[in-house]
Records
---
Amino acid sequence: DQQVKQNSPSLSVQEGRISILNCDYTNSMFDYFLWYKKYPAEGPTFLISISSIKDKNEDGRFTVFLNKSAKHLSLHIVPSQPGDSAVYFCAANNYGQNFVFGPGTRLSVLP
Amino acid sequence: GAGVSQTPSNKVTEKGKYVELRCDPISGHTALYWYRQSLGQGPEFLIYFQGTGAADDSGLPNDRFFAVRPEGSVSTLKIQRTERGDSAVYLCASSPTRTSGYNNEQFFGPGTRLTVL
């Protein structure tokens, strides 16, 4: 029973265009969400987070949107760059509990 | 400063053998986590240490898995009687603290790829 789902295993985007990565969750108790990026042979690195009291958080080219009623969040990368090519994991938790990660989406940004 | 390091980077063993995987967290980080990542999956929580004690070991799959952190720094994940299904990348992460109750940013190591033949 996956509590955090990333239904697109892979995504290809042209350089300079927008990348949109989606994440759905089932546990309504989750109230903190994060995105991690992972390059091959490296550990995941933190990208951006959002608390459930917000519906948007922006950091440079990266914006995370949260729709609590739909239990859905998305990561937007604008403009996409070849160096953004990586696996992106969505993670969620609620206060005092541990993170639950989604299965990841592999993003390929084509030059 | 140095990030989280894990040794070995790769470990190949035979079914039934015992293995130890080591994690060196970022200096000063009190919280340490172990995860297991199987092919095509995201990291799956195994155990969390706050200081020397295991604050949450609910993710350990069975009693063949055990982890220690005797001095509140380096941690070792121990797997007895390994099975082919244990093959995965084992990730360690550390964070400065867990004061808020939220797992704030965790810094991950590169992982140890365990292959059980």
---
Amino acid sequence: AQSVTQPDIHITVSEGASLELRCNYSYGATPYLFWYVQSPGQGLQLLLKYFSGDTLVQGIKGFEAEFKRSQSSFNLRKPSVHWSDAAEYFCAVGARGNNDMRFGAGTRLTVKP
Amino acid sequence: NAGVTQTPKFQVLKTGQSMTLQCAQDMNHEYMSWYRQDPGMGLRLIHYSVGAGITDQGEVPNGYNVSRSTTEDFPLRLLSAAPSQTSVYFCASSPGLADLRQYFGPGTRLTVT
């Protein structure tokens, strides 16, 4: 089955600084890739998804992610972080026609004033 | 649309008791899933379904049963609760096939003593 690794458990950035959260996946075929965000005590919200086509995908709240097949990565980026971005971020991988979705362990983002 | 609803929001069980976590969606989604979320482990897939009458095991199915008699409902049964099943449980649905975006419910926090 597919799997996801998020190497960073916790990241702290200053407000206004740029952000990159790492995600590496393992899957033999073309993956469907996702980033979700979870604010404290809340459910998960979809930030962006990659199914096919352009490898740079735009999401909500100013986030973007780039699919790099050669590196098996799907890193999430934001040019300027806001205090409201503090949350936990999850990368996930799936496959077309298959509901066996696998999530990474998550990266907790802290934003310093 | 209510989206994905889960009941109850909180539950405390004694070891050995059984219970059913309810999940319903009103978006006519084909796919539904159950996840558990534990600190440092992200979301782990328990069971999933790709349509009424079709279910399959995910990463951590032991101790849980599911059935899918209708498109709308996907209950999760704990047969004999154990302290290791203390967790937050999320139900999710997705349109399916080529659209695997997960729409999450608000979660059920379960404590087994």
